[in-house]
Amino acid sequence: MARHSPFERWRQRRIDYPLQYLLVAGLFALLRALPLDAASAVGGWVGRTVGPRLPMTRRARAHLARALPDLDEAARRRTIVAMWDNIGRVFAEYPHLGRMWDEGRVTVEGREHVAALVDDDRPGIIIGAHLANWEVPTMIGRPLGIALTMVYRHANNPGVDRLLARARSDAGARFVRKGPEAARGVFATLRGGGHVAMLVDQKLNRGLALPFFGRTAMTTPAPSVFARSFDCPVVPMQTIREEGARFRIVFHPPMQVPRTGDAAVDDAAFMTTANAMIEGWIRERPAQWLWLHRRWKD
Fold first, then answer.
1. What per-residue confidence (pLDDT) applies to 2?
2. Phi, psi at residue 255, to the nearest 5°?
3. Could you point out which of 20, 147, 260, 286 has its C-alpha 20 to 30 Å from the C-alpha of 191?
4. 115-170, pLDDT tens digit by residue?
5. Contact (CB, 8 A) for 259 and 266
């Protein structure tokens, strides 16, 4: 990791971050003034027009080529363009998050699995991935009648992070930052019999080396560790963008952590199954996953 000089850190805090904040705040204000469908469409157009030309797209192309080698070059190009369309829409939909459920734009399948979490008098865990608009599920607690603690990765820019927090403010959930704060918050929630939601498809440097698209990927063991410690089920949650700014959330049957007496073996087995499930979701709709992320060591 590159080290920044004191001047570079000062410039980042005093110049770069404030300018970034003003830019994002201005864009949010413009997008908020548009109808949701129009804002999403504008975001999609900007994403697919600008995104494929950015240097970081090379990483996404390399990941896609190795993960899905059966796609020909033309199919990979279409997938990358569609991925950027989705990313642009995710950004443009932030100012409208609070309206998604109220306007009937989100349908839910597998509600019985969430109802079981609420009714079993035990803590519970929901896991998902960075698919479609991964912020839409932050709103599931209110309409489904479940109080959630949600783990999120904060933005590096504090001002932008506050903007995103305000966009999520209608969720009715408690948000804890990824890292030590998240571990404490999750532990406290589960110990009190509450429910936790987390996205588990990104690299954790100190995680478990497990297969993902046929390659070793450092994977968080957190869902397995917490589920084993609190004897609670884990419900997988799949998010799908249907068309434009409309979504379907599918809750799958709960997963149980194996109990062989060897915690390390059990965690690896459980998270290998979770990785395979998420891989299946991505294969169904590869353009809706965040291929930009450095998921693999290489």
1. 54
2. -105, 145
3. 260
4. 998 888 899 999 999 999 999 988 888 888 888 898 888 888 999 999 888 888 77
5. yes
Token pair of 261 as six digits: 């007496």
Neighbours of 13 (CB within 10 A): 12
Bin 256: left if φ > 0, else alpha if -120 < ψ < 50, else beta. Answer: beta
CA 29 to chain centre: 24
Domain range summary for the chain, segments of one domain joined by +? 6-288
Instruction: Give the closest residue to 278 by CA, choosing from 109, 71, 270.
Output: 270
List C-alpha distances in Å: 284 to 236, 249, 250: 16, 15, 14
- Tell me, rounded to whole angstroms, the distance of Cα 139 from its chain centroid: 13
Contacts of 1 (CB under 8 A, 6+ apart): none
Q: How far apart are CA 257 and CA 248, in angstroms?
A: 27
CB-count burial class (<10 Å; 0-12, 13-18, 19+) for 80: buried
2: left (phi over 0), alpha (psi -120 to 50) or beta: beta
Give the list of residues 6+ apart from residue 298 with CB closer than 8 angstroms, or none.
215
Phi, psi torsion values for 215, nearest 5 degrees = -130, 155
Whole-number pLDDT of residue 140: 86
Q: Residue 38 contacts by C-beta under 8 Å, 6 or more apart in sequence?
A: none
CA neighbor of 68 nearest in space, from 266, 213, 260: 213
pLDDT in tens, 243-254: 999 999 999 999
Q: Residue 29: is it exposed, middle or buried by C-beta count within 10 angstroms (0-12/13-18/19+)?
A: exposed
Q: How far apart are CA 195 and CA 147, in angstroms?
A: 7
pLDDT value, residue 1:
47
For the chain, list residues with pLDDT below 50: 1
